[in-house]
Amino acid sequence: MRSEPERWRTDYARDGYLVVEDCLDKETLTALREAVGRIVDDPDALPPHLRGHVQLEREYARPDGAEDRDVARLGRAVRLVMELPEFEPVFAELIRHEPLLDVLQALFDSTEFHFHNYKCVNKAPGASGAFVWHRDLPYLYHSTPNLLTAMLCLDDMTEENGATVVLPGSHLLADENVAVGDQNIREEDLPPDLERRTVTCPAGSAVIFHVNILHGGGANRSSSPRRNVIGIWAGPDTYPTGSARYAYQGLYPRSQDPARRRQLSMALGDADARVSPLRAAAGTG
Q1: Residue 253 belongs to what domain range?
Q2: Where are the beta strands (DSSP E) in 183-246?
Q3: What are the helix (H) ranges across 151-251?
């Protein structure tokens, strides 16, 4: 991955999103794909405490038949997997994936940013539905809006497989004007003067979104899966205020504070003293 902190900051500030290719190396990409496959291929084989974090496409199908989907044919297609670090060590180790941390440090302009959660969006071919237009901020309960969403693409993201569509510039809305209803925005209520841009990129890319940018995504009409690992990260002095808590929430993977460095080592182990689970899962040393 090329280090381009100035471009990262410029693109993110101007457009409200940023694409960084090659954020995941081949070994890491393989390990993550295999780990996600073990979850989505047979969700009912998971132990109950993990199965509860898996949501199926048919749970989102509209009862009025407005979508072009046959609910009976959706089967066991998985749509969302929450709490990824609870499933396998490869997802917990992803919290300190150095290339991604380089991007986050540049955008937050600090080493004191911290992890909130990881989930997987799985757009199964022929079964996935569209994602509604929304902003991320209304879903996140924190003391300040200094947050961002980091999407790690495990597959190529194309128009055919339901790539995310963004409205560049929509992130410039003042935080206090973001409404709770912005979790689900009707097509006719979108700003008519803003460009719609489909975010396409190769597998291994990171796509970073401002939490105020308007975005959505179509269904996967291709014959291949489209899987993304999506993380929420919080900047300095930004703390959760809601009741929900997530696995490894509050870890600071780049912090210079001795107590936070000790916390990271206690939670994930000493990165320098053992083989990374990401590389171990891919069969590398």
Answers
A1: 5-62+74-268
A2: 197-198, 206-210, 215-217, 226-234
A3: none
Amino acid letter, residue 212: N
Residue ranges of the chain with pLDDT lower than 70?
A: 61-73, 272-285
Residue 31 is encoded by which pair of tokens? 């390990």
CB atoms within 10 A of CB 217: 24
Domain assignment of residue 243, yes or no:
yes
For residue 54, the domain's CATH number is 2.60.120.620
Give CA–CA dist 174/11, Å, rounded. 19
285 assigned to some structural domain: no
Q: What is the DSSP string of 21-88?
A: TT-S-HHHHHHHHHHHHHHHS-GGGS-HHHHTTEEEGGGTS-TT--SS--GGG-TT-EEEE--GGGT-
pTM of the model as a whole: 0.90
Nearest-angstrom CA–CA distance, 52 and 29: 25
Residue 23's φ and ψ, nearest 5 degrees, are -70, -30
C-alpha Rg value of the chain to the nearest Å: 18
Cα–Cα distance, 16 to 10 (Å, whole number): 10
CA atoms within 13 A on the CB side of 110: 15
Q: What is the pLDDT of residues 85-120, one digit of tens each?
A: 999 999 999 999 999 999 999 999 999 999 999 999
Distance (Å, rounded) from C-alpha 248 to C-alpha 87?
12
* CA gap 106, 1 in Å, rounded: 14
Compute how many other C-beta atoms are within 10 angstroms of the C-beta atom of residue 63.
Answer: 6
Provide the CA 198 distance to its chain's centre, in angstroms: 17
* Confidence (pLDDT) at 284: 41
Q: Is residue 284 part of a domain?
A: no
Unique residue bearing structure tokens 């320098």: 272
Neighbours of 157 (CB within 10 A): 25
Compute the Cα dihedral for 162, 88, 90, 240 and give only its sign: positive
Q: Would you tell me the crossing angle of helices 5-15 and 98-108 to the nearest 10 degrees?
A: 60
